[in-house]
Amino acid sequence: MRGIARLALSLALALSLALEKAQALAAAAAAAAAVADTAGSDPRAGKNSPAWYPQGGARYATSHATKTPIPGEDHFAETFDVETILEFHFHAYFFEHNPQAKADAMRLRRELIDAVARGDFVCVLPGVTAAMIPGLNESEIWPIDDGPIGPHPVGQYEIWVPDEHLAAVMSFIMIHRGEVSILFHPLTQSCIEDHSGRAMWLGPPFRLDLTPLTRGTDHCDRPQYRSLGLGYAKRHVAGAALI
Ligand SMILES: *[C@@H]1O[C@H](CO)[C@@H](O)[C@H](O)[C@H]1NC(C)=O
User: Fold this and answer.
1) CB-side neighbour CA atoms (13 Å) of 157
2) I want to staple 210 with a disulfide (CB 3.0 to 4.6 A). Which of 57, 103, 150, 232 is the partner?
3) Which UniProt keywords apply (predicted)?
4) What is the CA(155)–ligand 1 centre distance, in A?
């Protein structure tokens, strides 16, 4: 009898221990699930995490090999909708923690501003004024970025140029670029394509982060400086109404 009682007691003990363990396991699982919820952007959470796959514009353009070939039609799916490109950006890049690199980029900026002030051509960059370009709305000028922003991996400033002045500005930058790397890209409704397949470089290229770019008509670079009546803002020109 005594042996049976002892057996029952040890069985009960084992059962309660098992229950405790099960409860502890359940609590641990719940805690892990809660962590997975709050860590939705942590790629270590694996395929359940939104950060596991490329996001934004990086979903459409990647340098990775793909498991299956991309159909040829898809290369043209992203709205090759502009007959003629009428506005462009040059982005002058500089390593923001390297004084020489920044000084070289600022030297080019100064020389461009001086050329605009002389009336050699029209382009808009930080430092040009309405006195140099009549009708310019100076508050629309994008300031110098002293670090990465949007798709740009290092410090940069933007130079907007309409097609009327593209050759002159291109020539000037080719001659005066020094060691500055310049991204050259068009402004259309296909922001991602503009910064990848349609982009060109003067000097060694940098890798852009396409993640912040958006697709389709929600383009990131709208036609700019419309008050100047240049580029897409010019009247009675085929293609001008496309954007
Ligand atoms: C100049 O640009 C700013 C910023 O886009 C805008 O708020 C303002 O109305 C513009 N001024 C004129 C005179 O168009």
Assistant:
1) 22
2) 57
3) Dioxygenase, Oxidoreductase, Signal
4) 26
* DSSP for 97-145, written as a single string: T-HHHHHHHHHHHHHHHHHHHHTS---B-BTB-TTTSTT--GGGSPPPB
Which is higher by pLDDT, 140 or 14? Answer: 140
Pocket of ligand 1 (CB under 6 A): 137, 139-140
Look at residue 37 in the predicted model and tell me its pLDDT.
Answer: 46
Distance of CA 232 from the midpoint of ligand 1 (Å)? 18
| Other beta carbons less than 10 A from residue 28's beta carbon | 10
Residue 155: what pLDDT? 98
Strands (E) located in 137-209: 155-162, 182-186, 200-202
Nearest residue (CA) to ligand 1, atom 12? 137
What amino acid occupies position 14? A
- The tokens describing 17, both together, are 């221990």
pLDDT (mean) for 48-66: 77
3-state secondary structure of 184: strand
139 CA → ligand 1 middle, Å: 7
Ligand 1 atom 13: residue of nearest CA: 137
- Least Cα distance to 116 among 160, 174, 69 occurs for 160
Q: CA-based angle 29:35:41, to the nearest 5?
A: 140
Tell me the best of 124, 137, 142 to mutate to test the pocket of ligand 1, counting ligand atoms within 8 Å of each CB and taking the most.
Answer: 137
Residue 215 exposure: Cα atoms within 13 Å on the Cβ side: 12
Question: 142: CA distance to ligand 1 center in Å?
Answer: 13
